[in-house]
Amino acid sequence: MQGTVDGFNYGLVTPLVAYLMACLGGALGLRCTTRALLVTRSWRPGWLALGSAAIGSGIWTMHFIAMMGFTIEHTPIRYDWLMTFASLAVAIVMVGIGIFIVGYRGARGTALFTGGTITGLGIASMHYLGMAGMHLDGQLTYNTFTVSVSVGIAMAAATAALWAAGQVRGFLWSVGAALIMGLAVTGMHYTGMAALEVHVSGTTEPTVGASPAELLAPMLIGPLAFLLLAGVVVLRDPLMVMGRPTAPPAERKPGIPAHTEAPHRPHGPVHHPSRHLRRPLVHRRSRTPQNR
Q1: Cβ atoms of residues 54 and 102 within 8 Å
Q2: What is the pLDDT of residues 13-41, one digit of tens each?
Q3: In this predicted model, what pLDDT tens digit does every residue of 171-213 receive, in sequence order?
Q4: In the predicted structure, residue 244 carries a pLDDT above the cut 50
Q5: Residue 109: exposed, middle, or buried by beta-carbon count in 10 A (0-12, 13-18, 19+)?
Q6: How far apart are CA 51 and CA 35, in angstroms?
Q7: Which has the closest alpha carbon to 124: 73, 70, 189, 175?
Q8: Full-model pTM
Q9: pLDDT computed for residue 204 by the predictor
Q10: Ordered DSSP codes for the chain
Q11: CA distances from 160 to 16, 50, 78, 168 (A)
């Protein structure tokens, strides 16, 4: 028989908290991406890696907070630990690929499209891999069209968020990009859940997996602790709230002077040493006896 799916078992509490978590991860990750565009290449990989981990942890935490309010009538739900945390790794890796592309190629043109597409696919892959880790006495099926719409939402909103982060115009742009990224994750999540149909076989409780409550503790201790640490790192950075960067200092390279400023031109007539040298030479030639 077909089971009744309820994604709002606790009302609007889980959707709102999930959205805030997605915005938090997006704000930290996109701010790190913006910061990476302002530093030299030696520091850029560290900021991009921190941003990838922040966004991946944020969307993963958002997903399972939202799943706390998900119930199916006539059957309990269990989660596979390995599949659940594999979805976290997939999210971080795929989001990282997209962010690194934008971080090194710029948030425009082909690089932006490619990075946004991969980031959106990472969000969608995390969602459906996490759903594949569910164990229940029944079968899950999806509407193909609605699944395609959910993936399209993730890719479009992720591309828009990366574009906003790449503008490097200050803190408010990063906040707006984070709100878009949060919209991408939550919109994709609930659109994907709308594509779900459950066919329940019976009421037998699954023998493997952990209940949603048992997943809550490691979910809070792990990714949330990391997001807190990432927030401390970002907030302590002196360029956290800024607009466009000033011109970076010139790097010293072999054969290139350290200072390129124009020399100070003194007031008054300029004396050319060559003129003083030219007259004595002519004078000496006139006094030199000629050999005949």
Answers
A1: no
A2: 989 999 998 998 888 888 888 788 777 77
A3: 777 788 788 888 888 989 999 999 998 888 765 555 556 666 6
A4: no
A5: exposed
A6: 10
A7: 189
A8: 0.74
A9: 59
A10: -BPPEES-TTTTHHHHHHHHHHHHHHHHHHHHHHHHTTS-TTTHHHHHHHHHHHHHHHHHHHHHHHHTT-EETTB--EE-HHHHHHHHHHHHHHHHHHHHHHHHH-SSHHHHHHHHHHHHHHHHHHHHHHHHTEE-SEEEEE-HHHHHHHHHHHHHHHHHHHHHHTT---HHHHHHHHHHHHHHHHHHHHHHHHTEEEEE---PPPSSSB-HHHHHHHHIIIIIHHHHHHHHHHHTSTTSS-SSPPPPPPPP-TTS-S--PPPPPPSSPPPPHHHHHHHHHHHHHHHSPPP-
A11: 22, 20, 35, 14
